[in-house]
Design a protein that fits this description.
By secondary structure, this protein is of the alpha+beta class. The chain has helices spanning 16-27, 79-120, 126-134, and strands at 2-7, 38-48, 52-62, 70-76.
């Protein structure tokens, strides 16, 4: 998994501890995605005369073979809080995606084993076998 930190529209430089924190948090997500997945993280400091300083974080997760890219964003008082919020969103999404893929693969394997077992037994009626094949 590749993490890219890009600081946009900010006159201030992002300190090293925030960068290390972001890399540490998003490296935990490697167990949910394949090696070729790419995570782009954008941290931006927005200065507004009405709201003061606002810290904005945006993440885009591109998984090869998936038609859509996952996007999430968070606004907070500081970068660490914004990173925590966005990491929770990304982890929940990637965990659902990973569970969906593994569950479908396990169900397919289980269905194949049951069909093979039923075909091996001579007492299984053909309409039961046809019903299992159609699903």
């Amino acid at each position: 998994m590749k993490v890219e930190l890009v600081v946009l529209a900010s006159a201030e430089r992002l300190n090293r501890s925030v960068q290390e924190e972001a890399i540490r948090q998003f490296q935990k997500l490697e167990r949910y995605v394949p090696e070729a997945a790419q995570v782009d993280l954008r941290l931006e400091l927005i200065k507004s005369h009405r709201k003061g300083k606002t810290h904005y974080a945006h993440v885009a997760v591109a998984i090869p073979g998936e038609p859509r890219t996952f996007h999430a964003e968070a606004i907070a008082e500081d970068f660490r809080t914004a990173l925590d919020r966005i990491e929770r969103k990304a982890e929940a999404h990637l965990r659902r995606w990973h569970d969906k893929r593994t569950r479908a693969r396990r169900d397919g394997e289980r269905k194949g084993r049951v069909t093979a077992w039923l075909q091996a037994t001579l007492s299984a009626p053909s309409r039961l076998l046809n019903r299992i094949r159609r699903r």
